[in-house]
Amino acid sequence: MTERLWDVIGKREGLLKVSGLCGILGPVIAFTCVGVAVYYSPWFSWTENWLSDLGGTAGEKPIWAAHGIASVIFNVGLIITGIIGIVFAIGIRKSGMLNTHLGRLGTLFLLLNMSALCGVGIFPETTGYLHTLVSLVFFSLVPLSLLSIGTVVRKSSEKTLGWLTTPLGVISLCSFPVLFIPRPWGSNAVAEMVPSIAISIFSIMFSIRLLKAGLSLKDINMGTADKE
Q1: Interaxial angle between packed helices 129-154 and 101-122, expressed in degrees from 0 to 180 and rounded to the nearest 10
Q2: What is the helix (H) or strand (E) element at residue 102, kind and residue range?
């Protein structure tokens, strides 16, 4: 029985560590790739372009490399970030830290959100309406996931994390209509960065909590081993 418990603890410890690292690594990869893509795109304007323009505009070919290396880095970066984000979302779900109906809904929103981010890279702006669809899904799910998770965490022992997460959700929700306001005040890369930064801050904060939880389980694991 003790050996079986040890195995369970060990597996959960590994999952928390991996998902925690993914939650930190994802934003780093995303913003690094965006920064490099901007560097290789001297034509890009934060107030006159969407971020997705870095991956190519509607009708341009080749589909995933319309603007050369900039498009490749941007699109591949989003796909990798989305995959890593999916692992992070699964880790949150398996951790049991959000084991309520609203918590499970929030993690589902986060999982779908990261899947949509993958879709933004897989279906760049060159593909037309399909890109618009996955982009809208991504930006609409950011506040839904943050507000749901924040509400649950505020009622747990991690109240501080919850009170930090909820404002990020509110900011993301308020920024969503700006995506439809005419330029230069909206409909641009600046408006897209607000929810992107919000979900990234949440990801890093929650990942630190997951890593701490993983270390706590390691202590339990070592304690079990000592008793053996």
Answers
A1: 150
A2: helix 101-122
In angstroms, the first-to-last Cα distance of the chain is 12
Tokens standing for 178?
């700006």
Cα separations (Å) of 203 from 9, 13, 22, 177? 24, 18, 9, 23
* Residue 8 covered by a domain: no
Count: domains in the chain: 1
Q: What is the pLDDT along the chain (228 residues), one digit of tens a residue?
A: 333 433 434 467 788 889 999 999 999 999 999 999 999 999 999 999 999 999 999 989 999 999 999 999 999 999 999 999 999 999 998 888 888 999 999 999 999 999 999 999 999 999 999 999 999 999 999 999 999 999 999 988 888 999 999 999 999 999 999 999 999 999 999 999 999 999 999 999 999 988 887 666 454 343 333 344
Q: Assess contact for 220 and 2: CB atoms under 8 A.
A: no
Q: Is residue 7 part of a domain?
A: no
Burial (CB < 10 A; 0-12, 13-18, 19+), residue 168, is buried
What is the residue range of 82's domain?
Answer: 21-221
Kindly state whether residue 138 falls inside one of the protein's structural domains: yes
CA distance 164 to 166: 6
User: How distant is the alpha carbon of residue 88 from its chain centre?
Assistant: 8
Residue with tokens 């899947």: 115
The pTM for the full model equals 0.89
- Residue 82 in domain: yes
Q: Are 173 and 185 in contact, with CB atoms under 8 Å apart?
A: no
